[in-house]
Amino acid sequence: MPLRPLPPNPDRFSMPVLETHDLTVRFGGHVAVDGVTASFEAGTLTAIVGPNGAGKTTYFNLISGQIRASAGRVVLNGRDLSGAGTAARARAGLGRAFQLTNLFPNLSVRENVRLAVQAHAGGGGSMLSLASGHRDWIAKADRILAEVHLEAAAGQPAAALSHGDKRKLEVAIMMALEPMVYMFDEPTAGMSVDEVPVVLDLIRRLKERRDKTILLVEHKMDVVRSLADRIVVLHQGRLVADGEPGAVIASPIVQEAYLGVAAPAAAATPAAPAGREGAR
Amino acid sequence: MISLLSGDRPRSAVLSVILLAILVVLAAAPFAFPGAQALNTAAKICVFVILVASYDLLIGYAGIVSFAHTMFYGIGGYGVGLALYGWGATWVSVFGGLALALGLGIVLALAIGLFSLRVRAIFFAMITLAVASAFAILASQLSGFTGGEDGRSFRVPPELRPAFKLFEEPVLGLDITGKVLTYYILFATALALFLLALRVVNSPFGSVLKAIRENDFRTEALGYRTVVFRTKVNCLAAAMAVVAGGLNALWLRYTGPDTTLSFAIMLDILLMVVIGGMGTLYGAVIGATLFIVAQNYLQKLMAVGAAATEGIPLVPHLIHPDRWLLWLGILFVASVYFFPTGIVGRFRKAGPH
Ligand SMILES: Nc1ncnc2c1ncn2[C@@H]1O[C@H](COP(=O)(O)OP(=O)(O)O)[C@@H](O)[C@H]1O
Ligand SMILES: [Mg+2]
After folding, report:
1. What sections of the protein cross the membrane (chain B) (predicted)?
2. Contact indicator for B50, B193 with CB cutoff of 8 Å
3. Contact indicator for B284, B353 with CB cutoff of 8 Å
4. Among A129, A226, A234, A261, which is most buried by a count of CB atoms within 10 Å?
């Protein structure tokens, strides 16, 4: 039984920045995301939780356009983006950091971020100016790299980074795009304990600006509890709970389906085959 | 100098010396080598520098494999050639033919790009192959217009003819004939287009091309419409190939399927890019020079070798001039095997960055 959605700021009316209506995708007979309707407001951080294979990454893919929906709509600031391609959605303000790191391996760390800065500046079209002449783009890329503590690695190829640093670069690229909606897909997965706070601080600072809409897929419940204004629970592609963190975590369906309190139900939860996860 | 090179230096002392040597020799070729064959070789190098550099924009920078590059080369050759043949030997024919060829080439590149650059790379390669074959067949079938397999010989504007003399007196012992003038038109255009290509790959646009080659999926996710970038570079490379074809026609005073459209030329271009080093542009200069010099002088060198080794069993047979194609092949297999990143890649790794 799904909980009633709770507005994150009950005393303040705000128009949703991002809405999905009955968003659905089928892979063959398998419904990976099944009629998910939700809306997300500016200045809020929504955690999206659910067991492996619940459809969280696929939900992100449907929003940012990597996968076309079988049915349903994606609306950003009242504009229907369902027919738009990936690039158009990125330009419209949907930012995405991938669960499986997705970088330009042979380009330098700085160039990885600079390309995103350039995309945000709408500057990819110029054929006759020098990329290295746009000092402001390079300076901005370096500033963002410093925020994720990667400034020392700026000159290295992205492929040479450690796993944790690649995850940070992934986040840095999204920051450089300055989107309206930030989608973090397990940003701290596989990071060492001392690296995790760097990314979490970044997300916290982003949240404190209160003008951005943040969606965060995260497994660590303490992280979710400390950052989220709201939790959405996906289970087998369906939205099964949506509301204020305390209430959602306490709800029987989450205890059962996600936190695995009732052991038999948790054992029955299908786990995603690792290789098929993520957009790539 | 550095700004002419768009800040993209050869990044290796050996490479800089080789490139400078090629530049000086090509610039001084009419004065340094009196023979017709030497100047023909130098002119061919100039034409192929444009052709190979533009192909490198596609394959080396944007990761696009096209087999239609000789088609655009042919469009340039036929455009200028047929205009001179049909409208008379005037500059209006030269520039009118070139403009028409550029228009046709760019429209075709745009169409091929928009229709097929969305699909997987292998399909794009197949489509370009099909279009190029169709074009080659068309060119030989429309023999009333194109001269068919025989092609067309034509006269060039008076200023470009061998009998024309720019000055009464020779300069540094050389008569500045129309042929010499034509050579310098080729040389200057090749230099300018090479520097333009170097500028483009170091521009914001060029940085997106490299991003597409690395990870097109991610490039799209940054908000770049990769098909637009691919199509634009496809058009740019096609336009450069058209110009190369036009220059080649001016030099040869002939246009025909063998000199422009043949698939053998496409293979030569591919080899030159790979030998020089993909995605470096400087590789285009080195690859084109080495290949064309080998093509033109290997036979002679072998004749000398065969004569010198007379008396030794087997050796003179192996290096008999008739076997030059075999040795050319071996040379290329060896160079690709030993320098998988091309000559430029090889020297860059050895030298300081
Ligand atoms: N491109 C795809 N083709 C087929 N099945 C897919 C594809 N992407 C995801 N799936 C399947 O959809 C389900 C949801 O996967 P995913 O969204 O990655 O889950 P989560 O991110 O919640 O772990 C899984 O069963 C997965 O195997
Ligand atoms: Mg996932």
Report:
1. 12-33, 39-58, 70-88, 94-115, 122-142, 181-201, 233-251, 263-294, 301-319, 325-347
2. yes
3. no
4. A234
Cβ count near B8 (within 10 Å) = 17
Q: State the helix-helix crossing angle for A109-120 and A163-177, rounded to 10 degrees.
A: 20
Q: What is the pTM of this model?
A: 0.87
- Rounded CA separation B14/B17 (Å): 5
Ligand nearest to the CA of A50: 1
**What is the ipTM for the molecules in this complex?**
0.85
Number of neighbours of residue B99 by Cβ within 10 angstroms: 14
- B158-207 confidence digits (pLDDT tens): 888 888 888 888 888 788 888 999 999 999 999 999 999 999 999 999 99
| DSSP 8-state assignment for residue B158 | G
Q: Mark yes or no for CB contact B207/A111 under 8 Å.
A: yes
Distance CA B272, CA B69 (A): 13
Q: Is B341 in CB contact (< 8 Å) with chain A? A: no
Do A129 and B217 lie within an 8 Å CB cutoff? Answer: no
- Residue A179 to residue A213: CA distance in whole angstroms: 9
| Tokens describing residue B154 | 């034509």
Q: What are phi and psi of A108, to 5 degrees?
A: -65, 160
Q: What 8-state DSSP symbol labels residue B271?
A: H
